[in-house]
């Protein structure tokens, strides 16, 4: 087989018909070795892509291939191209179905890591909601009640969307919950998460996180904020309080300590902690 002819057809997408006398010496050598006196090479194409070729040698005599032969092969090549394109589309459809099924499984797994319902304590109600813009996403949401009766909760956001962010999110939630159950104070949990994130995340991903603990007996909310959008408290009289204290997001820059800040909840206060999906959401206008 003349590789020179093959390269020419693949590069140009045009058929080639040559005899031994018409080709360069480098191509002629391969034709002589194959015993061919003339060669016809026709591309199998779809759009601008060459999928393959039909390569024909004439060995019995030295006559060149006629142009009519090339034209007669054209319908056959068109049929082969159509079959190959159909096979490619079927393969893409099957792969898309497999990918969708895998994403549905990932969505089911992620939902198990997010609160499925609200929480009601004496004097308090806690509601949570999460809706990724795709099958899965990087929003973190979790809460648990410690042995001392305090409610610890977290809202965070892994940069990016889709499966990579969701996988990072699951790792963060698992690690964070383990440290909280071990009884570490909030600032220490943040420091440990900062080391975990820096060791596990790629350099182009970061985590913003609001981590808080509510003493339900005293109404004192203690929190640490690592680069997360600022939560707000809506007062019964119509006033609004925005939490201002925060450190950088995790995996942005090395950070050693995360300040703990306290806020005294009053009767009727509504605390809203959210991700940037809320403020980035827009309608057509």
Keywords for this entry:
285 residues; 3-stranded antiparallel β-sheet; rod-shaped
SSE layout and pairing:
Layout: H1 3-12, E1 16-19, H2 25-34, E2 38-46, E3 49-58, H3 67-112, E4 119-121, E5 124-126, E6 139-145, E7 151-158, H4 162-181, H5 186-200, E8 207-215, E9 220-226, E10 232-234, E11 240-242, E12 261-264, E13 270-272, H6 276-280
Antiparallel strand pairs: 1-2, 2-3, 4-5, 6-7, 7-8, 8-9, 9-12, 10-11, 10-13
Helix pairs in contact: 4-5
Write up what this structure looks like.
- By secondary structure, the chain is of the alpha+beta class.
- Helix content is 37%, strand content 26%.
- It is built from six helices and 13 strands.
- The protein has helices spanning 3-12, 25-34, 67-112, 162-181, 186-200, 276-280; strands spanning 16-19, 38-46, 49-58, 119-121, 124-126, 139-145, 151-158, 207-215, 220-226, 232-234, 240-242, 261-264, 270-272.
- The protein has a five-stranded antiparallel β-sheet, with helices on one face.
- The two termini are 62 Å apart.
Uncertain residue segments: none
What spatial form do the alpha-carbon principal axes imply? rod-shaped
Q: What's the main sheet like?
A: 5 strands, antiparallel
Q: How helix-rich are the residues, as a percent range?
A: 25-40%
**Strand arrangement in the largest pleated sheet:** 6-7-8-9-12
Strand content: 25-35%
Provide the gyration radius in Å: 33 Å
Mean pLDDT: 85
- In total, the number of strands is 13
Helix count equals 6
What is the N-to-C succession of helices and strands? HEHEEHEEEEHHEEEEEEH
Q: What structural class results from the helix and strand content?
A: alpha+beta
| Distance between the amino and carboxyl termini | 62 Å
